[in-house]
Amino acid sequence: MSPPRAATGSSVRQPDGTGRWTTWVDVDVDESDFDRLGADFEAAGATAYLISQPVLVDFATAWMAANRLPKESPSKEPLAR
Fold this sequence. Notes:
This protein is of the alpha+beta class. The protein is built from two helices and two strands, in the order ββαα. It has helices at about 35-45, 55-65, and strands spanning about 5-15, 20-25. A hairpin with a 5-residue loop joins strand 1 and strand 2 (about 20-25).
């Protein structure tokens, strides 16, 4: 299972110095559940806050895939590329 994804965008600077808005689909950025994620990590057996970053990232990736629900897309139109 992969984490929820959402459309996102940014102005990308062009070689001539102008900007062009570009959109793409990426992992949905949402830190609102980090407190719950941390509490669940501790409940899963964490005994200290000094942990291996790859272990925490792997745990968080799996946790988000299992606990986050996909958000409804505001539009069903294709994304600009």
